[in-house]
Amino acid sequence: MTTPRITVNGTEAPISPAAPHTTVLDFLRERGLTGTKEGCAEGECGACAILVARPGTGEPTDWVAVNACLLPAAALDGQEVVTSEGLATVGAAGPPGALHPVQEEMAVRGGSQCGYCTPGFVCSMAAEYYRPDRCAHAEPAEDTDPEHGPNGFDLHALSGNLCRCTGYRPIRDAAFAVGAPTEEDPLAQRRAQSPPAPVATEYVRDGSAFLRRNTLGETLRLLRERPDAVVVAGSTDWGVEVNIRARRAGCVIAVDRLPELRELRVGSDAVEIGAALTLTEIERRLDGRVPLLAELFPQFASRLIRNGATLGGNLGTGSPIGDSPPVLLALEASVVLADDDGERQVPLAEYFTGYRQSVRRPGELIRSVRVPLPLSPIVAFHKIAKRRFDDISSVAVAFALDVEDGIVRKARIGLGGVAATPIRALTTEESLEGRPWAAETVEAAARVLRAEGTPMNDQRASAAYRSAMLGQSLLKLYAQTTEAVSS
User: Fold this and answer.
1) Burial class (CB in 10 A: 0-12, 13-18, 19+), 17
2) Whole-angstrom distance, CA of residue 341 vs CA of residue 288
């Protein structure tokens, strides 16, 4: 084991003397890279965005934008980082002092006023700028929709970046104006080389430890020795606890780079998704093959969060308002749990036992999520929230239905935000199955669905509103399916 080090803008820097809980944001700012800002410390504003070299989906390496405020610096041991300052010094292909093309477009189109959010926007925009297949999806301007530019730029790449000055229009103009990277662009050239390999890390300081092992077996043995350890992948949940609630852990164990947790297999009877794959990686590798997951991804937080968040983490926290559990419940998914003694498979419907509690035992990890095949043809994910994107849901409802000859043969409905745990709407499912997929059936089932769970009043919504939205979601699904058939 060596002293953890991060390559920042082409120069290697030791993490020491930072504490194991020190974020990448603080690590960078302490070294004078103050372009990286803290706005919310929760991963919602994007002012802290940076680029990290990660395994690619179209090239060996992708430049991925992540929230520096959430990741512990030790989690990037051996990795490569580019900040907003580095885009010009490392990524610009022009003469010394030249701006990066993304920075240039932001400047000439008035995309920055107070400037506080600008470095984060620039880093998120640069990640999309370097996305290998972006320019392949470019279309004539008249054929684009409001969220995709003629240059193939997907505005969802900026969904985790907030600005209160510009009104976003000039930022969008800048995003839609960037061209393709040139052959001389150093960061574009870097994509053709392999990303940094994961390294084993053992960083102990001031009585706290950040640990990473190379294999699942070594990690499980470590967990047996340290059952009190906090397990992190993208740290999108734990990072908030550290920043906002000042929580500290005696031991943090990272599992995000374990090869055994990063596999994705599509078989004849199931799709198996590694628990440490990020949601962005899953989305791009599945490429729509599981339509209900494809509906989930754009509504799950922001691209910055999806670049770090994992299914294993979303299930592991046991939150009743996580967005993936309702979808996975509707898909009848199971979780594969592993410990030093072996593995076991648990249906997700039996996984949650109480508020943020599950059947997972001390020393166990979620290794993967299994979605059985074939998939139901009628699916939908309805997320009711105050903001269109990057928000916590008041209610989340996922549907997966088989309708043959006008009869509902199978109905699976997952709910979030209406009970102490994510739940299946079992009574509603029963009221649908074996009956005609018709207005009378759906209206009766909607009344049943309104009574599912134990919704509560809180700052996001009232219990009455949540109940109303449950029923309305089924009516909406019926309207959408009948409209599709009639058209």
Assistant:
1) exposed
2) 36
